[in-house]
Amino acid sequence: MWISRGLRRVWGYVRDAPGTYLWLGVLFLTTVALHHMSPEFEQEFLRARSTNLRELSSDPVRVLIASAMWIEGGRWVPYAVLYSVFHAQAERWLGTVRWLAVCGVAHVGATLVSQGALLWAIRAGVAPGSAVDAMDVGVSYALAGVVGVLVYRIPGTAWRYGYLLAVLAVYGVPLALGPTFTDLGHGVGLLTGLACRPLVRGRPGKTRNPKETAAVGSD
């Protein structure tokens, strides 16, 4: 039956990207929790888990981890699609450890650079002092890093540069037109992913199913 074959393929796709779907499962649970909070409590709750300047100065490790477990706005389905398209592909290609390394470096690096720029803006009088409590939770910096590193997975120079130009436009246009610290973070996350090229060495340009790889090796 085509239905059973389709389900097996879906399960195989999910099974080969365990980190992606475990993370997505956590985001589903935390999103459900947010929907049971009042708007006022939700804002205070998320602010305490935000990588803003106040929280970073008091407990950086905690908020760097916690901020990646919540989605501001409570819209989980779009992230389920994005995780399946980008994160799952990267994890299946790089392996869980390398994929997680890209996510971690992009998330931490983009957060520190964007918040450092915000601190400079506050001290220069460009941004208000209240910006130390700015909301900064979510998974978009890590996603930008994964989008960047996937440039090296695309075969063919034309397709690869076409993809690169597209993602540079997606992340670069907001940064050029009216930059916020979040736009800067997305740009840094993308560049961090592009800088992770050493992590892709030895990886094939096309994702392989582990069973197929084993079968080839046994011939």
Structure keywords:
single chain, 219 residues, mainly alpha, 11 helices, 71% helix, globular, disordered C terminus, Rhomboid-like_sf, membrane, Rhomboid-like protein
What shape does the CA trace take? globular
The main β sheet shows up as: none
Question: Total number of helical segments?
Answer: 11
What proportion of the residues is helical, as a percent range? over 70%
- What is the H/E order? HHHHHHHHHHH
Q: What is the total tally of β strands?
A: 0
Oligomerization state: single chain
Beta content: under 5%
Mean pLDDT: 89
- Rg (CA only): 19 Å
Low-confidence stretches: 206-219
Distance between the termini: 30 Å
Which class of secondary structure composition applies to the elements?
Answer: mainly alpha
